[in-house]
Amino acid sequence: MTNSTTPLLLDNVTLEYPDGQDNTIKALDHVSLAVERGTVTGLAGPSGSGKSSLLAVAATLIPATSGTVLVNGSDVAGMADAERSRLRREEIGIVFQQPNLLPALTAQEQLVVVAHLRGESTRPPEARAAELLDVVGLSGQLAKRPHQLSGGQRQRVNIARALMGHPSLLLVDEPTAALDHERSASIMKLLRQVTQEFDLATVLVTHDVEFLPLMDSVARMRDGKLTLPASVA
Ligand code: ADP
Ligand code: MG
């Protein structure tokens, strides 16, 4: 059942990139997908099948060539740039493979910066940052800078930072590609945990089929086409 409060709805979305000559590459080919709150949708498929393109369109970073993208019921194609930026800041959390933390900042400051960018003033951002770092298992590491943290810990900071803006939609692209198996498994479990705890609609791209049983549903991509999610349970 979907309605206007569904955090992410893609309806018949096609995305074409120019190929540098006269033709186009169809990265997304009539893709439809709904992601509800409190659920993780796993997105699997071979390299080049369109997984990152789907996330970029959902994140409103790239406009669809045709079709409709609704975030919390709002059509992103009709929005002015400022409105789309606001939507990204306030409704969408993005976690990419590389954490891209700022080298000079502590774990807590990485999160506080986000609150300052949002202009949030209702509550000291330091307190929320500390809470979120606790949620991701880093309560003792608030003052650590990126080089003092392991790869898995940096990815945890990255996840906490994505939650700082109170998103309803969490978009995650191969978060464990640089991590060993044990750390990968605990990051996947953490993403599931925060999805439930914060009632997020999460799309999680992974090439590792071993983690698919942790998802609520799995959508598979091939050549830009999406096979609709089937329940894993
Ligand atoms: P995946 O994340 O599944 O590996 P991508 O979404 O990155 O797949 O890519 C889907 C297709 O779109 C591929 O054929 C890729 O080469 C192409 N593509 C991705 N980004 C661009 C771009 N910026 N310009 C042109 N083609 C692109
Ligand atoms: Mg990709």
From TrEMBL:
Matches recorded under InterPro entries: AAA+_ATPase, ABC_transporter-like_ATP-bd, ABC_transporter-like_CS, ABC_transpr_LolD-like, MacB-like_ATP-bd, P-loop_NTPase
Keywords: ATP-binding, Nucleotide-binding, Transport
Presence of keyword Nucleus: no
Residue ranges constituting the ABC transporter domain according to the UniProt record: 8-232
GO molecular function: ATP binding
Pfam families to which the protein is assigned, alphabetical: ABC_tran
PANTHER family per the UniProt record, alphabetical: ABC TRANSPORTER RELATED (PTHR24220:SF685), IMPORT ATP-BINDING PROTEIN (PTHR24220)
Name of this chain's protein: ABC transporter ATP-binding protein
